[in-house]
Amino acid sequence: LAKVVHDIQDIGASIASGSFRTAGMVVAPCSMKTLAGITSGYSDNLLLRAADVMLKERRPLILVTRETPLSGIHLENMLKAHANGCTILPPVPAFYNRPQTIEDVLDHLTGRILGMFGLPYNNYRPWHGG
Questions:
Q1: Whether the predicted pLDDT of 99 surpasses 70
Q2: How far apart are CA 34 and CA 48, in angstroms?
Q3: Cα 5 to Cα 124: distance, rounded to the nearest angstrom
Q4: 18 strand-pairing partners
Q5: Which of 21, 25, 31, 94 is the most exposed, fewest CB within 10 Å of its CB?
Q6: What is the SS3 string spanning 11-67?
Q7: CA dist 38 to 3, 9, 81, 122, Å?
Q8: Quick one: angle between helices 32-40 and 46-56, nearest 10?
Q9: Mean model confidence pLDDT for the chain
Q10: Whole-model pTM?
Q11: CA-to-CA distance for 115 and 117, rounded, in angstroms?
């Protein structure tokens, strides 16, 4: 769905400005280093600056955090990010839908992420109970 691509060091790119309209942003995967940069406002590259723009403009920012085990610092940064409007969505596989392949697991994760923006994903089967 991307319509533009920029170099990570291009801090002056269009997506570094709040006037560049977006529905939000997904950081996937979101390393603990990136999470720390986002939570501290340390915007030294385009990824961190674009995330900072999402926060200041109060647009959805979904962080697909990756790391295990988690340290107290990681958890504090996740909590701080959440308190500032981020959605923390770790790529934890769901088993209630009985995935048969890694593609099933990835389809479920993709559907969850796109669902946060109200976008359909045909390979996603949401939970309906039972």
A1: yes
A2: 7
A3: 27
A4: none
A5: 21
A6: CCCHHHCCCCCCCCEEEEEECHHHHHHHHHCCCCCHHHHHHHHHHHCCCCEEEEECC
A7: 24, 16, 7, 32
A8: 50
A9: 94
A10: 0.92
A11: 5
